[in-house]
Amino acid sequence: MDRPLQSTARRGLQATLQFAVRLLAADLLCFFLLMMFKLVLFDRYIHVPNMAMSVDDVFVAIGSLALASFWTILLPKRGRTIALVILNLILTFIVFADLIYFRYFQDLISVPVLTQAGQVESLGDSIDSLLSWNDLWLFVDWPFVIVLSILGIRRKPIKQDGLSFRRSPRLRRVLFRISFALIVFATGLTLVFVPVNIAKKTWAQGLFVGNWWNLSIYNVTGVLGFHGYDVYRYANQHWIHKAVATDDQVNEAEQWFKERGDVRRTLESDPTFGEYKGSNVIMVQAEAYMNYVIGQSIGGQEITPNLNALIKESAYFDRFYHQTSQGRTSDADFAVQCSVQPQPSGSVFIQYAQNDFDCLPATLKANNYSTSVFHAYDGGFWNRNTMYSRMKYDTFYSRTHFTTEEPLGWSIGDNSFFRQSADVMGEQKRPFYSFLITLSSHHPYALPASYQKLDVGSFKGTMFGDYLQAVHYVDESLGNFVTKLKQEGLWDRSIFLFYGDHDNSIRDWAPFEQLLGKPLNEIQRQQILRQVPFIVHLPDGKHAGTYHNVGGQLDVSPTILHLLGISTADERKVGTPLVLDKPLEGKKVVFRSGAFTDGNVFYMPSSDGIVANGVCYDANTGEVTDKAGCAAGAEAAREELRVSDETVQYNIIGILNKRSAETASTAAANSASK
Predict the structure, then answer these.
(1) For residues 121 and 665, what is the distance between their CA atoms, to the nearest angstrom?
(2) CA distances from 535 to 286, 327, 473, 652 (A)
(3) Higher pLDDT, 166 or 59
(4) What is the DSSP secondary-structure string of 460-487?
(5) pLDDT at residue 18 greater than cutoff 90
(6) For 303-456, where are the E strands, in sequence order?
(7) Of 230, 234, 311, 481, which has fewest CB within 10 angstroms of its CB?
(8) What pLDDT, on a 0 to 100 scale, did the predictor assign at position 123?
(9) Of 649, 571, 667, 661, which is closest to residue 250 (Cα–Cα)?
(10) Burial of 102 (0-12, 13-18, 19+ CB in 10 A)
(11) Which residues, 6 or more positions from 80, have their beta carbon under 8 angstroms from its beta carbon?
């Protein structure tokens, strides 16, 4: 080869190598290092047991970053730098948002949750309480990255041997960018999908088919991989292959609900059926009210003296569980009113308010009840205006209907809320159904000093102590409410129900153990976390006592309608009545995670969703028992969740209602033609 040609080839190779070094050395490599630091930090911060980042997880994280950034290689130097800086900011914000969300919900943000992003603004103080100074480590690079990117953008091209990249042949530059971008993309795919596919075929078998918890996906894909999969899943379900129920799914759901309805039909022979026909119904859903505070004292002072007194003349279920998911308060509302499982992600109130359900207000309205719901907050929060209209409430008394005479927390204090609501109920057409949702015990539970009437001792100044103060204040407000109902002449004419909506999101078990005076094993913690009080006071005080049979929020509306003598045998409900002369045998409470309990065993599913990999505990001792004792119940729990999910997502109740209307119309037409 001639020397001039050798020289040209050498310079071309040098230029190519220089170009490759510039692509690799500075901004792209810096992006990878910084984001990996943040992903590792996120994993340490959430600290989920048995889910610590492994070597495979590191490879998946690197692959995810490659898939997120490979396209920046196609851009010129300045454009790539700007793109990587923006990508750094976006991904950091996503990781930070997941961290805050996890601290409250113990889960990751999903696309359905983002459809209710308007809720975040109203969390206010709750979000503040979830922040930590350590979180600043996620943003420590931002000032430097932004400054360095500005300097890099202003820097002139580097020249070498009279040959600059700016004067390199355009085709060579384009081909190299494309080739290198494809290499990074292919490497990213390999690093992500090889470990994920191995997991899917081994310990995570079936995970992407029937997962009940976003963190189980995170355990395989990492945080960025989870969001990629979540976007794909949402797009596939709602746009690409929009789910429509098959005839088999509709028929299976119809048969499943019929069998559950037949169970309730047999219970209509119980003496309690219709025992309180025509009674008013007043029900209180108490914010974050957990069962462990009932009957407890601190420093010789009862935490819930009024509820303790009410329990003595009521049916009190001490093994009653909330069944909420990410929708929290709205999930409790939906589960109680409509007796169908909430969704694994997001809120039914937000995502499926347009669908049909057999909810308590509509059933009572069809039986000549006036129906009202009271909640002293914005009507649009959790899409309540829309959902309550669909549920067939006559009136929704939201924030605008209340006088702000006792400003406290999110709105007005529960004492004022109960008093003003009772004034309205005193004027309502009877019989009536009134549903009240409290606010004063909402996270982060901080009350002004003048409202703190409980001496919490060493818990003072902690969130746990603040929580005890909040539930004590709500208990006092509830006592005043009962007194007011008696003054209005409503107490002895009404079925009164009280339950908690969900747990308090406190995960430090030390104060729980200190208050209860004993160490807690895993199942005791799960029971405390999921149990909320459920109290049913009947007009004549009958059936008072403590009931140890298990129940859940899906059982509330069947219980009410059973006592009123309104059959639910033909309604599509999951739950069964709880106030019976003889408890229903084999009763199970199914949780959104796939866990269940029947009072004898407590089944905890594994993160991979495989039934056989779960753990079966003795519900009374907390000791691990033979899995065979939980196998049938775990499969039944999966079936209940599957039917509920398909019912909600495909609007199966709407399909069945349409089918029934068409059948009735055809029958009427045939009858008229004869």
Answers:
(1) 48
(2) 12, 23, 18, 32
(3) 59
(4) TTSHHHHHHHHHHHHHHHHHHHHHHHHH
(5) no
(6) 315-317, 320-321, 370-374, 395-397, 407-408, 411-412, 432-437
(7) 234
(8) 61
(9) 649
(10) buried
(11) 27, 28, 72, 73
Length of the chain in terms of residues written = 674
474 in Cβ contact with 262 (< 8 Å): no
Long-range contacts of 79-86 (CB under 8 A, 24+ apart): 80/27, 80/28, 81/27, 81/149, 81/152, 81/153, 82/149, 82/153, 84/27, 84/28, 84/30, 84/31, 84/149, 85/145, 85/146, 85/149
Provide the token pair at 110. 């999903």
Residue written as tokens 């820097």?
155
φ, ψ of residue 267 to 5 degrees: the values are: -75, -10
Contact 571, 363 (CB under 8 A): yes
Give tens-digit pLDDT for 73-89. Answer: 998 888 888 899 999 99
Q: Quick one: CA dihedral 605, 606, 608, 611, positive or negative?
A: negative
Please tell me the distance from the alpha carbon of residue 357 to that of residue 652, in angstroms, as a whole number. Answer: 9
Q: List residues bridging with 602 in a β-sheet.
A: 597, 617
Rounded Cα distance between 107 and 47, Å, is: 12
Contacting residues for 115 by C-beta, under 8 A, at least 6 apart: 346, 350, 351
Lowest model confidence (mean pLDDT) among 247-256, 448-457, 658-667: 658-667
Cβ atoms of 468 and 298 within 8 Å: the answer is yes
pTM flag (> 0.70) = yes
* Backbone phi and psi for residue 522, each to the nearest 5 degrees, phi listed first: -60, -45
Q: What is the secondary structure of 44-84 as a DSSP string?
A: HHH--TT----HHHHHHHHHHHHHHHGGGGGS-HHHHHHHH
CA distances from 42 to 236, 243, 350, 607 (A): 28, 34, 29, 19
